[in-house]
Amino acid sequence: MAEGDGATADIQGLIPRTASGPDVSLEELQLAVRNHSLPLEALRYDLTPVGMHYLLIHWDIPQVDVDSWRLEVGGSVQKRRTLTLDDLKRMPRVSAQVTLECAGNGRARFSPRPISQPWLFEAVGNAEWTGTPLRHLLEASGPFASAVDVVFTGLDRGVQGGIEQDYERSLSVAEAGRDEVLLAYEMNGQPLTPQHGFPLRLVVPGWYGMTHVKWLRSITLVDAPFRGYQQEPAYHLASSDEDPGVPVTRILPRSLMVPPGIPDFMSRIRYLSPGDYTLQGRAWSGHGAISHVQVSIDGGKTWDDAELGSAAAEFAWRSWRYEWHAEAGEHELCCRAADAAGNVQPLTTTWNAQGMCNNAVQRVKVVVGTGVVPVQPPAGA
Amino acid sequence: MAEGDGATADIQGLIPRTASGPDVSLEELQLAVRNHSLPLEALRYDLTPVGMHYLLIHWDIPQVDVDSWRLEVGGSVQKRRTLTLDDLKRMPRVSAQVTLECAGNGRARFSPRPISQPWLFEAVGNAEWTGTPLRHLLEASGPFASAVDVVFTGLDRGVQGGIEQDYERSLSVAEAGRDEVLLAYEMNGQPLTPQHGFPLRLVVPGWYGMTHVKWLRSITLVDAPFRGYQQEPAYHLASSDEDPGVPVTRILPRSLMVPPGIPDFMSRIRYLSPGDYTLQGRAWSGHGAISHVQVSIDGGKTWDDAELGSAAAEFAWRSWRYEWHAEAGEHELCCRAADAAGNVQPLTTTWNAQGMCNNAVQRVKVVVGTGVVPVQPPAGA
Fold first, then answer.
1. Predicted confidence band at B14 (pLDDT cuts at 50, 70, 90)?
2. So what's the pLDDT on residue A184?
3. For residue range A165-218, what is the model confidence (pLDDT) as tens digits?
4. Which stretches within A35-107 are classed as H helix?
5. What was the pLDDT predicted at A9?
6. Average confidence score pLDDT of chain A
7. Which chain B residues touch A29 with a CB distance below 8 Å?
8. Is A33 on the interface with B (CB under 8 A)?
């Protein structure tokens, strides 16, 4: 797990720079055109179809030959193991719907904007993940009592913050042993696609996306807290470059709506005719069940309760709906979620140096007028 | 096919504006995070997997109930028809590999940059499309001799250039009758995904992506040249907002390479150790077979022939490879393609007001040095 000597030419420091203005550089655009978020109308699907689920890939998508691929389990354990994909498929099989969200979701709405993948508010997806509980594999390996962290290493390798590295993240032994943590080899009933981590990825329900290591090649128990780049300094809520900050872990509550009406190509402003509409969307939190969702049709001045649908699983998003009588004029629609742990989605969040966890409310501009064909939001959900 | 009254508030004019600087506005970013291009390492796959093929969706992805969906064939024909998807599947079935590319690919490399979807150079994909030849359906409908254009209308609706509209494009009767033109209901052996046009889309091999109308709902023969927004003024090579310009049609030659080595997260600069590498990539053109590909390792000063692989089909991309001895230092790798019609990919293209057809050569910055683990480009291709 030793990280290689850093390549030093033309690469940035440990902590992201901050943009001087709201506009996005061509450097950031390179990331924006590679990675992609959920098209908001795809909130209509209970399970996000392949190709619409958000993707954040730090370096290149590895090419994996599944016949030669192996998962190595080692480090501070009594029994080191080398497993094939078939070995893993012979272990207990579990499926669960889990909503994944990038920790940097909302980054491009911060001002000044930390320079990294410039997400707006849509880096999310909800999928059914199938695999084997990590707990069984850990127990069968016999961790020594001295082990404190479990390190997950992917096959993806690159340079970040001046450090050449494999993608690596860790969990505490206790967190890794949660019943829900999966080594997943299927997504929505199909083998993982290359971009989602084929042949095997980690799924840690409730945590932000950086934790769900893709293209897993090894699981290593270690006796000292893991401090690889993606664990520290990356993915921390820090007030400045000097502040070490606190680690990003579980997903804060967020709600998003399917924008009603039809969009303008460039501005994405929505157009619709006066009348009755059902606003629909999803809400999720990694800290507890969604307890309520509220909708505002006046840009956040006043709020009204939405009707909650059922959640398919503890860590899957929950649907909501709200009946709206749209009157002529320009409106700003918002929604906000709260969870059972008492977290409420805020109108604005505190700026932080890496642009993490910006769960400020979504704002959808709509123009209600005549001369526009009425369009109902999609039914279902 | 009459277009609705235009909504007029907060929407732009007919022709895209031009950006005052190189940076991308949050408005453009909204498009960049919705749509996505091919991750360059995915050039390794003969067939682009679902979720990696480029996508450009003008408005929202429609939700289609296939049981109530119908294709209407009408206008200047002897026999109007209404077809179900099963009706189309009972007609002759053909599969073909076709490379699709967005006409706006390369737009964000123009200076000044026309404001629209800010593509760099990767808005491409190669898929196997399965469907029924359009020709049979047209012949069975008995077009009147007066018909000049065939208009294809999608279920996607929105506002663009101040005009509320369905997505509509046309082909001349002669072009629509080409053997290769397909009404496609499968992509890579699976039903079309929602984002690629489920349940039916047009595939016009050789033409840029705007022609391949998704979510088809009607095919209408008309006796006068079609002039809907997406046909005119959109998708024209024009020197200014006042110049009507000439229509964009077939794909100009382009080649792209799989960047060697490993990337830096932000800059995407590539790092590798000195040694022997096989550079690999793809080349394609809608004007004729790829006749040669050349590679430059000095930023376009000198060029050397690459070795061409076979093309799977007339309108599919062709693989190429080039053996490169990487010496320490910084290099700029380029590739350029030429086709049998005599078109050669240029170092720079002429600016145009809509940012169309920028097939200037790709430039890949690499740093070859020690302290960097050698990484071979993926094998295969």
1. low
2. 98
3. 999 999 999 999 999 999 999 999 999 999 999 999 999 999 999 999 999 999
4. 85-89
5. 32
6. 92
7. 24, 32, 108, 118, 120
8. yes
Give CA angle at A296 (A291, A301), nearest 5°. Answer: 115
- B159–A contact, CB cutoff 8 A: yes
Task: Please report the pLDDT score of residue B78 as a whole number.
Answer: 98
Q: Which residues contact A65 (CB under 8 A, 6 or more apart)?
A: none
Which pLDDT band holds residue A5 (cuts at 50, 70, 90)?
A: very low
Q: Does B188 touch chain A (CB under 8 A)?
A: no
Residue B68, C-beta contacts closer than 8 angstroms, at least 6 positions apart? none
What DSSP state is assigned to residue B341?
T
Residues of A in contact with B161 (CB under 8 A): 265
Contacts of A181 (CB under 8 A, 6+ apart): A133, A134, A135, A171, A175, A202, A203, A204, A205
**Beta carbons of B193 and A6 less than 8 Å apart:** no
Indicate whether B13 pLDDT > 90: no
Nearest CA-CA partner of B289 in B321, B311, B274 = B311
A61 interfaces chain B, CB cutoff of 8 Å: yes
- Please provide residue B137's backbone torsions phi and psi, each rounded to the nearest 5 degrees: -65, -40
- Asked if A157 and B267 come within 8 Å (Cβ–Cβ), the reply is no
Could you read off the pLDDT of B48-98 as tens digits, one per residue?
998 999 999 999 999 999 999 999 999 999 999 999 999 999 999 999 999
Of B282, B292, B280, B281, nearest in space to B341 by CA = B292
Task: Nearest by CB to B51, from A9, A195, A266: name it.
Answer: A195
CB contact under 8 A, A11 and B63: no
User: B82: how many CB neighbours lie within 10 A of its CB?
Assistant: 11
Show which of residues 118-137 on chain A sit within 8 Å of chain B, judged by CB atoms. Answer: 118-120, 122-123
Burial group, residue A78, by CB count within 10 angstroms (0-12, 13-18, 19+): exposed
State mean pLDDT over B254-265.
97
Contact A262 B158 (CB under 8 A): yes
Q: Extract the runs of DSSP E, i.e. beta strands, from A116-239.
A: 124-133, 149-160, 163-172, 182-187, 190-191, 201-203, 216-222, 236-237
Does domain B254-368 fall under CATH 3.90.1010.10? My reply is: no
A26-247 under CATH 2.60.40.420, yes or no: no
Q: Does A2 touch chain B (CB under 8 A)?
A: no
What residues does A321 pair with on adjacent strands?
Answer: A280, A307
What are B309's strand-pairing partners? none
> Closest approach of chain B CAs to the CA of A135, in angstroms?
31
Would you call B163 an interface residue with chain A, using a CB distance cutoff of 8 Å? no
* In chain A, domain spans: 26-247, 254-368
Q: What contacts B380, CB < 8 A, 6 or more positions away?
A: A63, B44
Tell me: ipTM over 0.95.
Answer: no
- List Cα–Cα distances, B94 to B101, B129, B171, B198, in angstroms: 21, 8, 21, 17
> pLDDT for B28-49, tens place per residue?
999 999 999 999 999 999 999 9
User: What is the model's pLDDT at position B12?
Assistant: 43
Q: With CB atoms and an 8 Å threshold, state whether A158 touches B5.
A: no
Kindly report, residue by residue over B120-172, the tens digit of the pLDDT: 999 999 999 999 999 999 999 999 999 999 999 999 999 999 899 999 999 99
From B294's Cα to the closest Cα of chain A, the distance in A is 24
Q: Where are the alpha helices (DSSP H) in chain B?
A: 26-34, 85-89, 134-141, 173-176
Rounded to whole angstroms, the Cα distance separating B158 from B153 reads: 13
Nearest neighbour of B157 by CB, restricted to A9, A58, A262: A262
pLDDT band at B16 (very low <50, low <70, confident <90, very high): low
